[in-house]
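COMPLEX REQUEST
Ligand: zinc ion
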Amino acid sequence: MKRFVNLISLAFLSWGLLYVPDSQASVTSPLDGVNAFSTATDDITDLPDSPQAQRAAAKQLTIPSSSPIPLEGYRWPSRQITVYMATQDHQVQVAFPVAVKKWNQTKAVHLHWIKSRQRAEVIVTDGDLQTTGNSNVGYVTSQLGSTETQFNPDTHAMIRAKSTLDAAKLRYVNRQYRDHVAEHELGHALGLAHAPEDYQSVMIPRNIRRGISKLDRQALRNLYGLN
Ligand SMILES: [Zn+2]
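STATUS: Structure written out below.
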């Protein structure tokens, strides 16, 4: 089976930059910050394919050519998607279920929790995400979340996804913001790409205010073959 791990687009999949002032300099213009590139902390390709993934390999999936929110170009073969919680961090353990519930409310997909990491299609976890910046000019940008996806480029079928929140950095934001980061990362794990900055969408990079919008809902429903 031909497989492709979406590592290059991690930069685009990375979410939200939190601007943490450098201790020795003041922040002059937070929005001038650089994009943080993430690196995978553990490799999802070392796991055997789930039964769902193996079945998915043979089937060609249709991806809509236009969409209210940009699409990555792949999706899960079934609208029933399994998720495994791989974190002991309490705040992350709270944020992802909120995000799962919100995406399920779109009725485009149904994410459900399972206890087997091996069988899960989506893994949600916490980890240290890379921090970049330049203390000489007084800013440090910290990546709050990232999502790594594995898909079959021939069939457009997703095989696995792993969404990571940086628990340590998310201690400094409020709960709603954390929920939005989790929603954004799961949006990537479902096949949505980044929305332009002026859109009403949870998929805007560096989004700090918006949850899942009507456009996000519509895009996901289109992607999964619903109206
Ligand atoms: Zn993103």
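REMARKS: The chain has one domain: 4-42+68-223. Residues 13-15, 184, 188, 194, 205 surround zinc ion (CB under 6 Å).
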